[in-house]
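This part of the workshop introduces the protein records we will be handling. A record pairs a protein's sequence with a compact description of its fold. Comparing a sequence with its tokens is the quickest way to learn the format. The record below serves as our worked example for the rest of this section:
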Amino acid sequence: SSSSSTSSSGSSKGESEEYEKELCKEKEAGEWFRLVAGEGDSCRDVIQCTSSGLQAIRCPAGLAFDIEKQTCDWKDQVKNCAKKTKEKKVKPLLYTDEPLCSDGQLACGDGVCMERTLFCNGEKDCADGSDETYCDINHDPNRAPPCDKSVCVLPDCFCSEDGTSIPGDLPSSQVPQMITITFDDAINNNNIELYTEIFNGKRKNPNGCQIKATYFLSHKYTNYSAVQEMHRRGHEIASHSITHNADENFWSNATVDDWAKEMAGMRIIVEKFANISDNSVVGLRAPYLRVGGNNQFVMMEEQAFLYDSTITASLTNPPLWPYTMYFRMPHRCHGNLQNCPTRSHAVWEMVMNELDRREDPTIEEDLPGCAMVDSCNNILTGDQFYNFLNYNFDRHYQQNRAPLGLYFHAAWLKNNPEFLEAFLYWIDEVIEKYDDAYFVTMTQVIQWMQNPRTKSEVKSFEPWKDKCDVPEGRSCNVGNPNSCSLTSKELQGETIRLHTCMRCPNNYPWLNDPTGDGFF
């Protein structure tokens, strides 16, 4: 964008300096604001105060300036053209020379004292709202403390200063290299064949057991008899919400109750219609990888979820091991507008390490990494994908052997046969070449971290022997799955098929009626 400085001739210099002083009085350093509010071109123009005078910029054509985000964005995304300045957030008076309040209390921006616990709890308690303005991981007065290894001990707690330490302090050469393949969204006829081709029963880990994956399942269009079969074969089923609500901000700001309805509700649906009764649905991933802040993690504690796998860590060497949320996250909250938890929570975080997508990492300058494989949009051929897999495997294997996460949406492999071919070739090669690489589920990673075993001991590690070698079978023990044609009061005008080995419910299960019984 173009920029220019405004200055004027001598006679009116005094006036313009006064005017400038007035304009800049209340502005923060580097803050952009509008001189004229309104739609059209005036929504493209902003200025900021600098030490050498006012500086102006204009957003390129087709864009407008979002005053809250402080950046140019697509015109139809910007909703604040009528506002000249971004909302002034009053800061609480947390750090004062003389304490303003008694113990256990903190001062609002207006000097009124409030209980410390009310700060950053998601509700404005101060008259000026200042108890909720300063709430990131560095300023929440009730934030989780930094990692303390004397308190945080396995099996229930694991943390390290920078997140790269190996559990049990094993030397890296003794650690089995775990690989977690995950797929997000519905399981149905669009992808069942793909999953059967990858997990064909012939691909086995060094302990003789079939390789396993984790499926983060969203509800709509899911075929639950197929889910039942996946579970029978020893794959892990986890929750990815009922609605997969397309408004990304919904997830950032959802209440504890919203999160419970979406995620615990999904677990109710899965357990009932895929006939899963072993309490194995213990993990979740938020749609669009939108972390839900403390609300999401409070819900997970209340609803007894074991782990989340939504938080992304930017590309680092060595990569991070999963950690528990009792202590402060060992990396910064990565991603645009993400709302990471700040408090202490009794939940594991299966952190999503970004992958390195550079063609030639030895010479290329830094490219940002990508967390989901299908968002590594510079992978265009099977060969590139194969090299990418090898390079990222080596990056983990030759460093601290943190689990290598390969996170997919099925369509990316299904719609690109040469990616699938390269993927299968790579899996087979890893199985053949390494006697210490294991394709395991998220829960199996946690089971190993809670009880770290060397690569020789792990061959007889019981939790990895579960559903070791499952014979071919059919999705329902008896008869064929029911194909139920259903409606829901919550989905006006839609009729959706639900495939299940269980009895057909009265209604299509949804947020307020996850069992489909019709009792809201």
